[in-house]
Amino acid sequence: MFIVLPILTFVHLVVCVLIVLVVLMQRPRSEGLGAAFGGGMTENLFGAQTTHVLAKLTTWLAIAFFSITLILSILTSKTGNPKTAIEKSLLNAPVPAASPATSPASAPAASPDVAPATLPETATSPTAAPVAMPESPAPEAAAPAAPEN
Q: Contact, 19 vs 62, CB < 8 A?
């Protein structure tokens, strides 16, 4: 298994280079980039059926490219790659103990931009004791103080 991956990767690289070369050798209908890279030379090399041969070769190279890509992805996912140093440190990190006041089960679900509302205790609660409210001082009269002589 360990020797198959490098061999397939090399074959994949060769197929990629061949696809680039074959596509550049093809003669486009508008005589653009293909003519600059030797479109006339391929006719002399392959004969009159150059476009047909290059089109078939492009099709077969594309099928090989996608097949090798699929095989490489399956084989790579099947290999038991060891965990990276970051994954190992995260798995071995101690989990912080949650206090009862901050446990996720007892915390209200509120968005971070909204402050959680606190509910006043009612008298029906068995643990609630009546709270004595301090009386505010009465407002004094607006009469000015008389100076002493």
A: yes
pTM: 0.45
Number of Cβ within 10 Å of residue 53's Cβ equals 16
Structure confidence by residue, pLDDT tens digits, 56-69 = 899 999 999 999 99
| CA dist., res. 13 & res. 115, Å (int) | 57
For 79-112, the pLDDT digits (tens) are 776 777 888 888 888 877 776 665 555 555 555 5
CA end-to-end distance (rounded Å), the chain:
112
Token pair recorded at residue 12? 């994949």
Phi, psi of 55 (to 5 degrees): -65, -40
